[in-house]
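Thread amino acids onto this structure.
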């Protein structure tokens, strides 16, 4: 089992960068960094070494950040203040444009929103999304199709009919 102190030394910057990207706040990202590693110190068995430390910490950090956003009193306000500017800075290509993805994220279940962020904002491959989400590629693909269907139902005409 990997030492938590070594995980912190070797991968703390990964956690901090990921949290900063999602939360758009250095202070909040630093809190997340502390919270993630405190959680691991309290329960080191969380890291079962079934995936690489980077993949594990990427997933844990993303989940922690999503929990923070979900627990916020004004999820829509956070979306307008943080997600929208981040999306506008990204050079999104493919079936989603900034406005369509922002609108779709507001209507997705938490796991589907994570998949959309990983795939369309972070540009992860289907296999990478599956690994981070600890799901089969088939399950992720089905969920991506549902995300596209949700976008189409919402009238987002910039969304193609597939998950390409």
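Threaded sequence (164 positions):
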């Amino acid at each position: 089992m990997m030492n938590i102190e070594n995980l912190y030394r070797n991968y703390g910057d990964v956690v901090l960068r990921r949290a900063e990207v999602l939360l758009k706040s250095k202070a909040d990202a630093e809190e997340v960094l502390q919270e993630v590693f405190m959680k691991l110190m309290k329960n080191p068995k969380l890291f079962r070494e079934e995936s690489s430390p980077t993949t594990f910490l990427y997933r844990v950090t993303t989940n922690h950040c999503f929990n923070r956003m979900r627990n916020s009193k004004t999820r829509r306000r956070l979306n307008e203040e943080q997600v929208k500017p981040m999306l506008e800075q990204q050079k999104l290509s493919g079936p989603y444009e900034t406005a369509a993805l922002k609108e779709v994220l507001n209507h997705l279940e938490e796991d589907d929103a994570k998949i959309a962020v990983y795939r369309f904002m972070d540009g992860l491959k289907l296999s990478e999304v599956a690994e981070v989400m600890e799901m089969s590629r088939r399950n992720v693909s089905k969920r991506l199709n549902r995300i596209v269907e949700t976008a189409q139902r919402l009238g987002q005409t910039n969304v193609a009919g597939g998950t390409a």
